[in-house]
Amino acid sequence: MNRHRLGIAVACLSLTLGAAASAVEGLRVLPETIDGVKPGDMMGHYLRRLARDRFDKWQVQYEQRKSPEQIVEYQKHLREKFIEAIGGLPERTPLNPQITGVVRRDGYTVEKVIFESQPKHYVTGALFVPDPSRFKPPYPAVLEPVGHSFTAKAREIYQTVGALLALNGMVAFVFDPIDQGERGQMLSQWPSVSGTKAHTMVGVGSMLLGRNTARFEIWDGMRAIDYLQSRGEVDADRIGCAGLSGGGTQTSYLMALDERIAVAAPACYLTSFERLLATIGPQDAEQNIYGQLAFGMGHADYLMMRAPKPTLICAATSDFFDISGTWTSFRYAKRLYSRMGFAERIDLIEHDGQHNYHKPLREATTRWMMRWLLGKDEPITEPAIEMLSEKEIQCTPDGQVMLLEGARSTYDLNRDFEKELAKRRKKLWATRDHAQLLSRVREITGIRKLTELPEPKVVKLGAVKRDGYRIRKVRLTPEDGIHLPALMFNADGQTPSEGAVLYVHEKGKDADAAPGGPIEKLVKAGKRVLAIDLRGTGETGQTAQRKFTGVTGSDWKDVFTAYLLGRSYVGMRAEDVLVCARFLRQEQTGPVELIAVGNVGVPALHAAALEPDLFASVKLMRSLTSWANLIELGRSVNQQVSAVHGALTTYDLPDLAGTLGGKLTVEEPLDALGKPAAAD
């Protein structure tokens, strides 16, 4: 057994012993439910309650939005907030388009296109062009972003929509999103990390840079419109956009942000955040824009931000995107369109089916585009379509853009930006007052000053006797709905002045609590120890939330819910550390030492850097060495919970560590993959 595997085995044994000790000795603190909520559901319930407050505020603001002037101002404000939240948009650079092949079909041709949305960042797509003997140019054009399909533009439903539009006199451009079709961004992990999983992987690094995966997709779509408008046979003033599922997400964003889109038809995506959080919860990275619930942008807003331009919502009755939320968002949008005098320009079609681009939705999309782009309102009947094979629709020589010479991935683009930021940070921390910079850290993380944090409600719940010491069970409630179970370890005959340790572990208070374990050694060395479950760990840890667990951690849905609210787990857990350290200090007169093990080291470091006088010393064990390392590696494991949106624009973890000087000890630092970090 090599040393790495031995380390894993020892860690697993430690956790097993800790869990066994908890079960045998009754170290559990919280009951089966508190106020009807299971401890493992505490964070989800708490965050949904915060979200409900935002929904109520949103509705009040909506009802106040009556006049055309108020509506225009609202649209302008949300567009600015949206673009700010995704990190702004890149500058326009040459598209350098290539047509790598043409396939002819009865009534249309399919051109295989490659262009650069950013320098050497390649986009692949299929351009469906009507037969000029049937329809005379210039043609309207419809952009079709595809959904989360591994084969992307090659998938039958997407080809069908492209062909159907072309057969009815419109150009259609069906293009591959990142990490789908020919656009795998990290070929060393392809195809095991593709689609939604890959979008979320790049999203973890992007959020640290103040960006979002959506930024890449939105910009690809906007540059695809640039390409369409560059084509001589396309009428640049008659542009539509229609997409399904993940393509419905992209359509919703593009139609809200790009005023060139005259007509839109998002399919099987739009619902409402209220219903989304109550049902399947947040999805992959690009579907969660930082702080959007806080600044008031929901699904209905994607519709209303483009009013009064024609928009058709395509929906399915049994979609996992809740249909009642779809109708709610439609109703809000319909009322706003009505206030503007254009009620007929927004509509909804609901098909009796599950999540898919059903034939009635494809036909309705085509008819909607014809009505508003061609001035025709005729029934559409979809004929049999001869599909192109994956090979026939392939644009690149070897089937992947990253095999093209000089190709740049999303990870490369993030690395480029991080290199710029690293230079800025170095200068910033060398020339600026650290107190001012730490104040900025507070703003970014939302961590309040210690004096602003309320005193927790404390409930003492009995004790467990061990050889030479006693374990007292405590529950601290720093705010409504948040309960932190804790264990206070006191040596027999210990006085309150011998010093104390606040001990936090990513696996919870029991992880190192077994007899003979690290906590017992501290107690027998004369220390009082408070081991505590920070929110979302230990007893309040969320069970696996499927799908992205292996990439981002078991609590990824709750973390994304917090992200939508403009909050981070780092900030919330740092406040837990501060509240508990203050409580411990009030319990005894000696200094408080802080020990953090695992990913809770990131919030612990923040707490100590922002309130250094509260701690005599700080020890971080098996904690992430730097966020910049995550950007460098691209890949990461379970780092979403340790990320703070936009942090790298101002600071990295070593910057915080540097403010603590000799007070800080770091043992066994880890990289973003959870492996031992390389020595400097």
How many distinct helices? Answer: 22
Cα distance spanning the termini: 27 Å
The average pLDDT score comes to: 94
Report the sheet-strand fraction.
Answer: 15-25%
- Sequence stretches where pLDDT stays below 50 over 5 or more residues: 1-24
Please state the structural category. Answer: alpha/beta
- State the fourth-level CATH superfamily of the largest domain: Alpha/Beta hydrolase fold, catalytic domain
CATH class category name of the largest domain: Alpha Beta
Largest sheet: 9 strands, mixed
Please name the CATH topology of the largest domain: Rossmann fold
Strand order of the largest sheet: 1-2-3-5-4-6-7-8-9
Task: Count the domains.
Answer: 2
Shape: elongated
Per CATH, the architecture of the largest domain is: 3-Layer(aba) Sandwich
Helical content class: 25-40%
What does this structure look like?
With 680 residues, the protein is of the alpha/beta class. It folds into two domains: 21-45 and 436-667, Rossmann fold; 76-417, Rossmann fold, CATH 3.40.50. It is 40% helix and 19% strand. It contains 22 helices and 17 strands. It has helices at 3-25, 42-63, 68-85, 156-167, 195-208, 213-230, 246-257, 273-278, 292-295, 299-304, 323-339, 359-374, 390-393, 410-431, 434-445, 518-524, 549-552, 556-564, 569-587, 601-610, 627-633, 653-660; strands at 98-105, 108-118, 121-130, 139-145, 171-175, 234-244, 261-267, 311-316, 346-351, 457-466, 469-479, 482-491, 500-505, 528-532, 592-597, 617-621, 664-667. It has a nine-stranded mixed β-sheet, with helices on both faces. α2 (42-63) runs parallel beside α18 (556-564) and α19 packs across α20. The longest helix has 23 residues, at 3-25. The model is unreliable at 1-24 (pLDDT under 50).
